[in-house]
Design brief:
This protein has 193 residues and is an all-alpha fold. The chain folds into two domains: 3-132, no CATH class; 135-193. Helix content is 85%, strand content 0%. It is built from six helices and no strands. The protein has helices at residues 3-25, 27-41, 51-71, 75-96, 102-126, 135-192. The termini are far apart. 16% of the residues are buried.
Length: 193
C-alpha cells in the first residue's frame, strides 16, 4: 500500500466511523429521520421495517466498513458499502433538515455538499485497485488465454489426426500391396501347378 493510501484511508474513514457511532448512540433520532423514507418504501418491502433496528444496522455497518476501510482490509468492498450508506444518509439528512430559516437552508446545502463529497471519495476508493488488475481485467484476460489455449489444442488435435490418418493410409496401402502380391503369387503358383 502506498504512503498516500496509508494516510488517506484512515482520514476518509474517520468521518464515517464517527457518524456511525453517533447513529448507534442516538438511534432514536436516526429512526425518526428514517421514518418518512421507510413509510414510503413499506409498500414495496416484503417485510415490516423497524426504524430503530435499521438505524442500528446502518450505524454498525458504517462503523464496521469504516474500520475495515481505514485499516485497508477489504477496502474496495468496504468503500462500496460506505458509498451506499453515505448516499442513503445524504438523502435522509437532506429531507429532514430544517429549512424554515435562511441559516437552515445554508446549513442544509453545506451538509449536502459535504455528504456528496464524502460519497464521491469513497466511490472513487471503491474502484481503486491499488495498482493491481481488477476482477474484470483478470476475467477478460483469463477468457482470452482460455480461447488461445483451446485454439492451440484444436490445431494440435487436427495435426495429430491428419498424421494418424496419413500413417493409417500408408500402413493400409502397404498391407494391401503385400496382400495383392501374395494373391498374385498364389494365383501364379496355382496356375503353374
Amino acid at each position: 500500500m502506498s504512503f498516500v493510501r496509508t494516510l488517506a484511508r484512515p482520514m476518509l474513514a474517520s468521518s464515517f466511523i464517527l457518524a456511525g457511532l453517533d447513529k448507534l448512540k442516538n438511534s432514536d433520532d436516526t429512526a425518526q429521520q428514517l421514518s418518512p423514507l421507510l413509510r414510503k418504501a413499506a409498500a414495496s418491502l416484503p417485510f415490516q421495517a423497524n426504524e430503530k433496528a435499521l438505524a442500528r444496522v446502518m450505524g454498525g455497518a458504517q462503523v464496521g466498513a469504516g474500520v475495515l476501510f481505514g485499516l485497508g482490509k477489504f477496502s474496495r468492498l468496504s468503500a462500496g458499502l460506505l458509498t451506499v450508506v453515505s448516499l442513503l444518509n445524504t438523502f435522509v439528512e437532506w429531507r429532514s433538515a430544517d429549512i424554515s430559516s435562511k441559516e437552515g437552508r445554508q446549513s442544509r446545502r453545506s451538509q449536502l455538499l459535504k455528504n456528496l463529497s464524502l460519497s464521491g471519495g469513497v466511490l472513487l476508493a471503491s474502484v481503486d485497485t491499488a495498482g493491481k488488475p481488477g476482477l474484470a481485467w483478470r476475467a477478460g484476460h483469463l477468457a482470452a488465454d482460455a480461447r488461445r489455449n483451446a485454439s492451440h489444442l484444436a490445431a494440435d488435435a487436427r495435426r495429430n489426426a491428419s498424421h494418424l490418418a496419413a500413417d493409417a493410409r500408408r500402413t493400409t496401402t502397404t498391407k494391401l500391396n503385400k496382400a495383392d502380391k501374395a494373391v498374385r503369387r498364389a494365383v501364379e503358383h496355382a496356375s503353374g501347378a
